[in-house]
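Hi there,

I know you've been waiting on this one. I reran it after we fixed the sequence typo, so this is the corrected version. Both the input and the resulting structure follow.
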Amino acid sequence: MRVQKIRSILAWTVVVLLVISGAYYGLVKVGFLPAPGFMGKQPASMPAPAETRDGRWQQAIEYLGSQLPYLHVDPYFKIGEAEFQQSVARLAENVPDLNDEQLTVGVMKIVASLGDGHTRAYSRPGLARLPLEMRWLSDGLVVTAASSEYAQAVGAKVVRVGAHPVGEVYDAVEPLIAADNEMQVLNDTAVYMGMPAILYGLDLIPQKDRVTFSFEAQDGSQFDLELLPVSGDPGSFTSVYEKAGVQPPLYEQDRRSYYWFRDLSESNAVYVQYNVCDNQKGKTFRSFVDEVFALVDRGQEARLVLDLRFNGGGNENVIKPLIEALKSRPAFARPGRLFVIIGRATYSSALQNAITLNREHHATLIGEPTGGKPNHYGEVRQLDLPNVGMRVQYSTRYWLNYPEGDPLTLEPDVTTTIATADLLAGRDPALEAALQP
């Protein structure tokens, strides 16, 4: 009788513990409680380096397979555990047959397979980039800037990489991108397609230190350039605006400052570009907001345009002074007073800011769908992979910003796109939409 009672107590204890554990992880997932990583959960010690190159890579891959699922708040929300571990085992087994670039790509694919845009593997240091900048526009992949020796490519469309059409290259690079939606893939593929070592690791080009791109000029003619990557400072670039002889639009004039503003008195508006969710050295965001509203308050029914299209996040609470300023000015709740420009690089905390401004302060969203997902994993920490120089970023929390649904992206109220012709004319369709009478 006593034994049965003890067994019954133990059984109920297990049930209660399971319920508590499930409730705890449920609250972690929706952001009400901190993730285990903030309660002492740390990566295991890295093993001593193996003597051989193959051994070191196998150590790193196996370490990834054990530690990433342990540390991530919800590692198997998209991919099954068996599938994930099979891909880890397969890559570790194939190490002797793969070069370093192929292994780097393999690790990136494994991490990206989790389907969390905040959980990503960073390529090994020293993987040089081509001295040009590319961007997916409505009419293709366009070179927006390049070093002087490749200035011919500025403003041209990329049509082939090596022997492969640009669409085929996009499809090959996409599995490396840790992304929540297609907009994030668009944003990041333009970066990876400019890294020859990555293209080499994907077996798209025969050499890792050079690549031939085929371009289409504005007049429809095509030309090839052999491009060499640079590991250091590539020097000054020629921009598409410089080549076209036009003034860059406002959104392109200062992307390095955390925040800045411009009085657009001719349109009875103030334009604010907010690039980083953090306080800039020498000027707090609160003092910046005071300057902005001192100007806004001078004009009658002045519009405020907040540009978040390049803001990848930081601390979502930094924007509070702006929220407070809007709350104290109820007139900004009326349509046509507050506009927020969003895009494929609007992400993380900046995305949360856009949601708050739209839902609670009636801001009109203009631009592209966001690269960030409204309900998303985040609050990242870092995991170093031993002996191969790679780093993995992983999520420790889930942010539930849309309890009533789970959209892949935050859609604008007014959608605008940018084509090559807009760049060559120095136009910004999103700002133009915000300033329409």
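Quick highlight: The two ends are 84 Å apart (CA to CA).

Best,
R. S.
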